[in-house]
Write a structure and sequence with these properties.
Oligomer: single chain
Shape: elongated
CATH architecture of one domain: Sandwich
Distance between the termini: 131 Å
CATH class of one domain: Mainly Beta
Number of helices: 2
Strand order of the largest sheet: 1-3-10-5-8
Strand content: 35-45%
Mean pLDDT: 76
Largest sheet: 5 strands, mixed
Radius of gyration: 33 Å
Helix content: 10-25%
Low-confidence stretches: 5-28
CATH topology of one domain: Jelly Rolls
Length: 246
């Protein structure tokens, strides 16, 4: 087959630069940023790790556990699975510390998000009076499947962890894993001043002997008093007062 002369000339001219560059050794391989390569490899490793399934035989939440009163127990170092079935569904869990200044580590894990999915949960640590001690918004994806926090808890007692979905995200009805670990610390215990009445965050009654109450005529009467604090405040109410016999 014979091509027209004009077309043959164009094809030769177009091909010449490429041929001459290769012949002269001018072709340079594209450079690759090592940091980009390392990040790509890390993303691939994270994706593989995030696609693993939650360990079989782990504990699961028991519904309903939507309130502090219905919270499921946590065991240090043991994973428990849960799932928010609606944007209004919260899961509550509780733990008990037995020493002062225990460190509590909370890890939140989701492994079922695909590469085109992302979702967020709010994980909160509270005391028995509902005061927030620590809180983390876990914004997770297929390559970032875990988040968490650490908090040192001063007083022994019962504490609560709630898991709530962020309503603006779509895929937070997938199963999650929650692991709480407790560890004693060497942090010294803060001591109250001598003769101080200590009111904890939870409701507590205390008996104060020989409380002097000023009467209308300016005299004083001694009472044995029982006081009860209002949780989370320094306010207390008089529950009972018995006059002291002189």
């Amino acid at each position: 087959m014979k091509w027209p002369l004009a077309r043959t000339s164009l094809l030769l001219i177009a091909a010449l630069p490429a041929l001459s560059c290769h012949a002269a050794g001018w072709w340079v391989a594209p450079t690759v940023d090592p940091a980009v390569t390392q990040q790509n490899e890390q993303d691939a490793a994270d994706l593989m790790a995030c696609q693993t399934t939650l360990a079989a035989g782990s504990y699961g939440e028991t519904e309903p556990n939507d309130t502090m009163e219905a919270a499921d127990p946590l065991t240090s170092g043991v994973s428990i699975t849960g799932q928010n079935y609606a944007s209004t569904d919260e899961d509550w869990f509780y733990l008990r510390t037995t020493t002062y200044n225990e460190q509590v580590t909370v890890n939140f894990l989701v492994t079922q998000l695909r590469t085109d999915q992302a979702a967020s949960w709010v994980v909160t640590l509270k005391d028995a009076a509902g005061n927030v001690l620590a809180q983390k918004t876990a914004a997770l994806s297929a390559t970032r499947c875990s988040d968490g926090f650490q908090q040192i808890i001063g007083d022994p007692g019962y504490y609560f962890i709630s898991v709530a979905p962020v309503a603006t995200t779509t895929y937070n009805d997938v199963q999650y894993g929650l692991t709480m670990t407790q560890q004693e610390t060497a942090q010294p215990v803060a001591s109250p001043p001598p003769n101080a009445v200590v009111f904890r965050r939870e409701t507590r009654r205390v008996r104060l002997p020989e409380v002097a109450v000023e009467e209308a005529d300016g005299s004083y009467t001694l009472y044995d008093a029982t006081l009860e604090n209002v949780p989370g405040t320094t306010t207390f109410n008089l529950i009972e007062a018995t006059p002291v016999t002189q």
